[in-house]
Design goal:
Blueprint: H1 18-37, H2 43-49, H3 55-83, H4 85-104, H5 109-137, H6 140-154, H7 156-171, H8 176-195, H9 210-221, H10 224-254, H11 261-286, H12 288-312, H13 319-345, H14 352-375, H15 383-403, H16 417-420
Helix pairs in contact: 1-5, 1-6, 1-7, 1-8, 2-3, 3-4, 3-5, 3-10, 3-14, 4-5, 4-8, 5-14, 6-11, 6-13, 7-11, 10-13, 10-14, 10-15, 11-12, 11-13, 12-13, 12-15
Length: 421
């Protein structure tokens, strides 16, 4: 069998309309954001009720979620390639439900954190398999366009999730946030199972083989384009997760916005969603590499401005100025999210599931320590967060420069025959 170039991979014709497909994939991937952001207004109350020793311990409710996801992605990636996308999504939702029930009835912080890790492990199934479903049907700039539209819908979740969690706590206790997760997970799973056909037919699946896993993993891990954009994702995501984990402490503890916290969070989330919409409109014309370079320059410039402001105002810039500059910086972050992932996945059509898993694992495993490190210094100043953004955006820029334009490297690394046969 002759060698195949990964960029000539045929894609399946989408079975659903673009609008329904984008909505469904956005729901599958947004379970991650919902599971994180809906918890933010409840962190202090959870810590108080479960006897948390300090505020940093409650940050683990967010940070450890990404650890569970990192290992879950390594499991569900190969599973989606060997047993199909639908199996990975449905089985992942079952594990997600188990972890959610554990969190719902957790008597201690330790049990809650265990439930969060299990919850995250399970939700990795829908997240990874959904990326593989998208890659099965779209590639290159077309995939970046679809990912941008998915991000545009997806970002509605972090916009409304804190308000959603806060409304639940107005009428019920915080544990019923997990009850809502159960209902939403079941509804999303039913929609997917009833409407989305399998995109990896049986004749294209590979039985599990350690040799094949080794060869495929070696190809992915030694591919300059894949690794460069994966590292860039990890740096940007690490800075962003530090904001997620500390957002309530920043807006409530430092700026004392009180009940207005969900509003500020939604405004900044809207910036990312609007960026995804703009990216979807421009990516087919300008290309994802060009847009990513512009966005990285924007993040570096924005985080530099924020760092100067933080130093000038002893760690607490005026709230309107802080939100305005952060809004602009997050716009460029939104441009990066869809494009970096699409460029990392570009060479991996034949191993989309495993590729998405390894990319997700490495980017998550890189981002979590970064987020925990930055978060440990956020007490009464925004300086650690904004300087963390600056350092991470510079590191991401270096990684993208090292990887280069993926469209100009199509023939540089071909997939081994034993991986694709």
């Amino acid at each position: 069998m002759s060698l195949h170039n990964p960029h000539t991979t045929e894609v399946n014709k989408p079975a659903l309309s673009l609008a329904e497909f984008v909505s469904l994939m956005a729901l599958m991937t947004s379970l991650v954001a919902l599971s994180i952001d809906a918890m933010l207004p409840a962190l202090d109350r959870i810590g108080l009720e479960l006897g948390s020793q300090n505020q940093q311990e409650t940050y683990l409710i967010v940070s450890l979620f990404f650890i569970g996801m990192a290992f879950g992605q390594l499991y569900y990636g190969p599973v989606s390639d060997t047993k199909g996308r639908r199996y990975a999504i449905v089985s992942g939702l079952v594990v997600f439900s188990v972890g959610t029930v554990i969190c719902m009835f957790a008597p201690t912080m330790e049990i809650l954190l265990l439930g969060r890790v299990i919850q995250a492990f399970g939700v990795s199934g829908p997240r990874i398999a959904s990326l593989a479903v998208i890659r099965d049907q779209y590639a290159g700039d077309a995939m970046a366009r679809v990912m941008s539209f998915i991000m545009m819908v997806f970002i509605l979740v972090p916009m409304i999730a804190p308000l959603f969690g806060q409304l639940i706590m107005l009428w019920f206790e915080w544990r019923h946030i997990f009850t809502a997760f159960l209902f939403i997970g079941f509804a999303g799973g039913a929609w997917f199972f009833l409407r989305q056909p399998e995109t990896l037919p049986a004749n294209k699946r590979h039985g599990f083989s350690w040799a094949r896993l080794f060869d495929s993993s070696k190809f992915i891990l030694t591919h300059k384009v894949v690794m460069g954009y994966t590292l860039a994702m990890g740096f940007i995501f690490g800075a962003f997760v530090s904001y997620l984990g500390a957002s309530q402490a920043i807006f409530d503890g430092i700026y004392h916005v009180g009940q207005a916290f969900p509003l500020y969070f939604a405004v900044l989330a809207f910036s990312i969603g609007f960026a995804s919409f703009v990216n979807g409109k421009l990516v087919m014309r300008m290309g994802m590499f060009t847009l990513s370079k512009i966005a990285l320059a924007g993040v570096v410039l924005g985080s530099t401005t924020l760092s100067i402001l933080a130093l000038s105002y002893t760690g607490k810039p005026p709230l309107p100025i802080f939100v305005m500059v952060l809004f602009t910086t997050f716009f460029f972050v939104g441009i990066l999210f869809g494009n970096l992932n699409a460029m990392a996945m570009l060479p991996l059509g034949h191993v989309a599931g495993l590729g998405a898993a390894i990319i997700g694992f490495i980017s998550s495993f890189l981002s979590v320590p970064i987020a925990i490190f930055i978060g440990s210094y956020i007490v009464d100043s925004v300086s650690p967060m904004v300087m963390g953004f600056l350092v991470c955006s510079i590191a991401a820029s270096i990684a993208v420069f090292w990887a280069g334009n993926p469209h100009q490297k199509e023939d540089s690394q071909e997939m081994p025959e034993q991986v694709i046969e």
